[in-house]
Amino acid sequence: MSIIASIFIVLGLFFFTGGAIGILRFPDFFSRLHPAGKLDTMGLLMCMTGMAIYTAQDFSLAAILTALKIMLIVVFVFITSPTATHAILNAGVQAGLGPWTAPQKKDN
After folding, report:
1. DSSP secondary structure letter of residue 58
2. Which residues have a Cβ under 8 Å from the Cβ of 71 and sit 6 or more positions away?
């Protein structure tokens, strides 16, 4: 079970790393929110699932309840993350932010 939990945690860290790189590399506000949304949903899902599996190894009541609480955190994030991302995008549109466009090349 420790190996399975470790695999989930490493996969979660992979998503966190990929999302962080995407936030740094993408050019504008709108495209940066896409990896930010993936970062916190998939990264958190994988890491927290690994932690729940690791915690539930004892098969005691306290360990099972702790694992269930961890999974409730995942459900809460899955509900709130898309809503928060939408609200942030809407605030950007309301503020007048436009999408990034490539600079035009001048013909010689």
Report:
1. G
2. 48, 49, 52
Q: Write the CB contacts of 70 (distance below 8 Å, at least 6 apart in sequence).
A: 48, 51, 52, 55
Nearest to 85 by CA among 40, 26, 22: 40
> What is the value of pTM for the model shown?
0.78
Q: What is the mean pLDDT of residues 2-21?
A: 93
User: Dihedral sign, CA of 44, 45, 49, 50?
Assistant: negative
The CA-CA-CA angle for residues 53, 21, 3, to 5°, reads 20
Here the tokens at position 29 are 């506000």
